[in-house]
């Protein structure tokens, strides 16, 4: 364990992994191929979502990933990985995914997820990591925030409080089924051995709309489609979510303050939508 810790400290990570790029093709075929490869690699598809005709998201988990999520406080945030398939303006089709090693450190999980990273690389490929020009090491990720005054991992939004874990899960499911706050359920993963469940939530409209974040932030050559959807975590009798400032910044750590100002309304909008999910049944 100590040897693993020292190796991580000497290594830098980036938020996404580019699995493959096809010069031409269609998103549907790339999605179908990715599903097959992930299943063969020991991953379970727990949900999927199309943002538009040119981008599709798969959410997957594995026994190893769920076991790691059970080891740490709020580890359920990391109980699923997201795979993005995107057709660029030039017609290329990119397949990329959230980097398990980046997620392990920035979400302060119970291991480095090296085994999960290796399994994803075997299943889908790993041409390069991207999304952070210089990369960040494990220490920097464990205490990451965009700048002074911006939230850390632990500065979560408390979006719902309930009488019990079971009531919390039922209420969140009902709110998502109803589309409260312009939301759509993408996935659900239960963390083994804990009263903890993470929901992947797409936000279709309003100030926190996914497309508003995508349009303003995702301007690079390699696309960050796997930033979406957002996590809504039921832990015990409460529901929490990342502060949108933290969640967006950790996917685009090189983004300028000028760009963040263009989406200054989005973090509050994300929280508003997730609170609407939790409050729907009480209205």
Task: Describe it.
The protein is built from eleven helices and 13 strands. The chain has 283 residues and is of the alpha+beta class. The strands form three sheets. It has a six-stranded antiparallel β-sheet with strand order 3-4-5-6-2-7. A five-stranded antiparallel β-sheet has the order 9-13-12-11-10, with helices on one face. Strand 12 (230-235) and strand 13 (238-241) form a beta hairpin. Helix 7 (165-177) packs across helix 11. The longest helix has 14 residues, at 27-40. The protein starts with a helix and ends with a helix.
Low-confidence stretches: none
Helix/strand order, N-terminal first: HEEHEEHEEHHEEHEHEEHEEHHH
Q: How much is the radius of gyration in Å?
A: 18 Å
Structural class by helix and strand composition: alpha+beta
User: Major beta sheet, specifics?
Assistant: 6 strands, antiparallel
Query: What is the rounded distance between the termini?
Result: 49 Å
* Principal-axes shape call: globular
- Count of DSSP helices? 11
Number of strands: 13
Percentage of β-strand residues: 25-35%
In short:
The chain is an alpha+beta fold.
Topology (elements, then pairings):
Layout: H1 2-9, E1 12-13, E2 16-22, H2 27-40, E3 44-52, E4 55-61, H3 63-69, E5 81-87, E6 93-98, H4 100-106, H5 114-124, E7 128-130, E8 136-137, H6 138-142, E9 157-161, H7 165-177, E10 183-190, E11 196-203, H8 210-217, E12 230-235, E13 238-241, H9 244-251, H10 257-262, H11 266-279
Antiparallel strand pairs: 1-8, 2-6, 2-7, 3-4, 4-5, 5-6, 9-13, 10-11, 11-12, 12-13
